[in-house]
Amino acid sequence: MKVVKKTDEYTIMQRRDKRHAVVDSKGNAINGDDKARILSAEGLIKIPEPKAEEPAAEEAAPAEEAAEEAAAE
Question: How far apart are CA 27 and CA 31, in angstroms?
Fold first, then answer.
């Protein structure tokens, strides 16, 4: 593995398959959200924005209201 960046807190290494490994100062692997946060802060990856679910709920609300009005008549 090739060392990309080394700090006091962690070391970022690039594997032969071009993915990254992050290891803390004690030699333990850092995974999950912490790894993604570190790699994103260093500019090595881009984390996509989560899709907003609220507009879909707003579109469904008028359809539900129309159905209730039709049922009331």
Answer: 13
